[in-house]
Design brief:
The chain has about 450 residues and is an alpha/beta fold. It is built from 16 helices and 15 strands. The chain binds beta-D-glucopyranose. Beta-D-glucopyranose (BGC) binds next to loops.
Length: about 450
């Protein structure tokens, strides 16, 4: 039981009655049971000393694989209408080829059954960064063939759980996976290819398009993607800073959404993208989507690069990159050091609507959340409350948003940060694996009751 001197808040504005409320997680970050699946790039990356800050791995994580019933009960008690989780590719295809693990696929079958029995809609993401190691050893996302392998995997999953799944997500945040995983090496597979990482972006997009076709062939009716987006602010009006900010905006905000929604790459990316069949690929990539998922955390301030690497939130940006992120001052920050700027969510959604117009399908906020320590997490409540109000303002201004998912249900393995950042509505004791709902969980449960009432 959490007692606190919580500030009194005005009730949230009313969202549409059919608005989809949910929470998000990902397989590698919560499942554990690493011995019961094939190895992924993250297992190999985490095993190298120094790659993950606290030296931890996701071998056990939250042990969700064995405790999913308890976690679904937490979701039911929270009162969400949907649960976004990811399917682990190496759990389904442990060898990274077409051999299927009945045990692995069976887990998602049971999870989906458990969710349906609790009246919660399953929203699976097919890829949240945990590439099977065997696929990586064949070139991973630098290899065009990975796109075709991914579509085959999508078909296998759809065949097994598609009868109970209404909405699908193909990829999570291909921009982060390309930049952090292949361009600057802060994430698995730890490659530092800088602009030679661009094929990774193209192959993920192609994988997305082929997976959309495979899912539709298997009867899927509602398909989206989850991309990270945030406004990019120039560090000053100086032309070198605005040029750097524009370039960063292209990489973060448009490299994926332009081909998906407009069927073309933004300048100057098209010229840099090595593909033997760019036009045909772009046609596949821009298969119409039923909705578009936005993950929002923070805006970024960007200036011209310096001569030295820039250390930003613990990520090292080499001077060869044509931009350097800067601190945003004047806002509170989370325990991760990320600025809390709810109005940037409104700004982002309005800019999206203006940029894509009729080509933009309905939006779903597929991730939004923050890292704070403690069970009495009033700062997380303030963060969620302010972002939901900012979202409502964008909707009142005409942006068609159909759902909102909090990142995350549980504290979990926060990639290169290990277990040092806590994003959960539910605290996890990593020694005992005991789950304890935080004050933010109670707040969200009450807010959702308010919306229903
Ligand atoms: C990712 C999550 C991650 C969260 C917080 C998102 O970029 O999809 O996996 O835990 O941000 O860093």
């Amino acid at each position: 039981m959490i007692t606190s001197m919580a500030p009194t808040r005005a009730p949230l504005p009313r969202f549409p009655h059919d608005f989809l409320w949910g929470v998000s997680t990902s397989a590698h970050q919560i499942e554990g049971a690493a011995g019961e699946r094939g190895p992924s790039v993250w297992d190999a990356f985490s095993a190298v000393p120094g790659q993950v800050k606290d030296g931890s791995t996701a071998t056990v994580a939250c042990d969700h694989f064995h405790r999913y019933r308890e976690d679904v009960a937490l979701l039911a008690d929270l009162g969400v209408g949907a649960y976004r989780f990811s399917v682990s590719w190496p759990r389904v295809h442990p060898h990274g080829d077409d051999r299927v693990s009945a045990e692995g696929l069976g887990f998602y079958d049971r999870l989906v059954d458990e969710l349906c029995a609790a009246g919660i809609r399953p929203l699976p993401t097919l890829f949240h960064w945990d590439t099977p190691l065997a696929v990586e050893e064949r070139g991973g996302w630098l290899n065009r063939d990975t796109a075709a392998r991914f579509a085959e995997y999508a078909a296998v999953v759809a065949d097994r759980i598609g009868d109970r799944v209404e909405r699908w997500i193909t990829l999570n945040e291909p921009a982060e996976h390309t930049l952090l995983g292949y361009a600057i090496g802060e994430h698995a597979p730890g490659k530092e290819l800088l602009f030679d990482a661009l094929p990774v972006a193209h192959h993920q997009l192609l994988a997305h398009g082929l997976a959309v076709q495979a899912l539709r062939a298997a009867g899927a009716r509602s398909i989206g993607v989850a991309n990270s987006h945030g406004p990019t602010w120039a560090a000053s009006d100086a032309p070198e800073d605005t040029a750097a900010a524009d370039f960063y905006d292209v990489l973060l905000n448009r490299l994926f959404s332009d081909p998906l929604l407009l069927g073309r790459y933004p300048d100057p990316i098209g010229e840099l993208m090595p593909s033997p069949s760019l036009d045909a690929d772009l046609k596949t990539i821009s298969e119409p989507l039923d909705w578009y998922g936005v993950n929002y955390y923070q805006p970024t301030k960007v200036g011209a690069p310096g001569l030295e690497p820039t250390d930003f939130n613990g990520v090292t940006i080499p001077p060869q990159m044509p931009f350097a992120p800067r601190d945003i001052e004047g806002y509170p920050v989370t325990d991760f050091g990320w600025p809390v700027v709810p109005e940037a969510l409104t700004e982002l959604l309005l800019a999206f609507r203006d940029r894509y117009g009729d080509r933009l399908p309905p939006i779903m906020i597929t991730e939004n959340g923050c890292s704070y320590e403690g069970l009495d997490d009033q700062d997380r409540i303030a963060y969620l409350d302010s972002h939901l109000r900012a979202l409502h303002r964008a909707m009142a201004a005409g942006v068609d948003v159909r759902g909102y998912f909090v990142w995350s249900l549980l504290d979990n393995f926060e990639w290169a940060e290990g277990y040092s950042q806590r994003f959960g509505l539910v605290h996890v004791d990593y020694e005992t694996l005991e789950r304890t709902p935080k004050a933010s969980y109670a707040w969200l449960r009450d807010a959702l009751r308010g919306q229903r009432g």
